[in-house]
């Protein structure tokens, strides 16, 4: 009998996310840039160019004072590489905001064409689209039938001009400048972003979507998103971000404020796909009233360093939060992500489910903060974090915090790191599925809840993760 030749099993290998599409750089045709750094003169210059009302200029200057008074966070990833003296906080592209795609300058239009933004709109998979390039929104549209129902979807600058009282009532009340140093920075230099208002009882059946593209090297992007979903209304909002890679530090310090009123429902889906030279220091927060629901769907893939922890304040009885997040950290990346929930009313509930994948020395840290106040009897919260480390050089940490003030709460936390469930493999193989394919199916399941919600081609990094070929043992 011939001796069997031993063929060793191949080790699992997962290719890095293909970024060729995103790393195409446009020639810099900006018509104006502020000086680098952060001074009162620069703030006044930005405010003047944007024709801010006096209250907004005052707000910016107060935010600058707060920024100068606050220290950098003493926890989280190392951001010492960030030097604000080197960052340009405002870059005005050579384009006017328009509702006609053909009026967008060719170089900018070609960038968004490559990312699939207008194609998705033309296929009727989006009810409205906003596109920001560097510091200004260059394109915005919304379907006529939504306008007739009273839905407002526009850029923040237009919102201040046409809906000033509403913006003034809500702007940076959920994320005040004193919250942390980069919230104060945002309050001082914010530019662009989206404003959405959904009237009572209106259901926006097709998603709205905004895409933020930072092209300029050494610059920052500071868009502000403000969404108000009134009583018994509903909305799905999709946000996408990308930038080409440079050998200098870029900064993203956006801010998202979501107001979900009584009985309303909001799903907020995000793909953070910045380049590997980006510091992504974004702040997102939702206030949910009685019987309201906030659903977060979050994917974090690009950037050199990320600090991203969407927060849900469950302010009304029976308010609910659902959070699903996926983070992929590879070589040279330190992605510090997670979620927080504040239970501030009776019978509130939250489910937090996250997946992190790290390889090639990447660092993926999950942080959760669950607070149950004395005003929230019978609160329920389930936190589940699962991590896969694909080699010995990578790192994954889970840092949950539970602050429970009452004794009538039902709180649970579960974390798994580095291993695919043997029971799940057995279940699939017992039904005739090859073991390697079973493992691949499980990894695809990490990202499927997000990928299936995103109809845009810019989510190609999700599809790459779904379609990766896995062989051998994982973990």
Structure write-up:
This protein has 475 residues and is an alpha/beta fold. The chain has one domain. It is 21% helix and 34% strand. The chain has eleven helices and 25 strands. Strands 5, 6, 8, 9, 11, 12, 14, 15, 17, 18, 20, 22 and 24 form a 13-stranded mixed β-sheet that branches. Strands 4-3-7-10-13-16-19-21-23-25 form a ten-stranded mixed β-sheet. A hairpin with a 2-residue loop joins strand 3 and strand 4. The N terminus and C terminus are likely disordered.
Give the % helix.
10-25%
Major sheet attributes: 13 strands, mixed
- The overall average pLDDT, rounded, is 84
Based on DSSP secondary structure assignment, what is the total number of beta strands? Answer: 25
What percentage of amino acids are in beta strands? 25-35%
Number of domains: 1
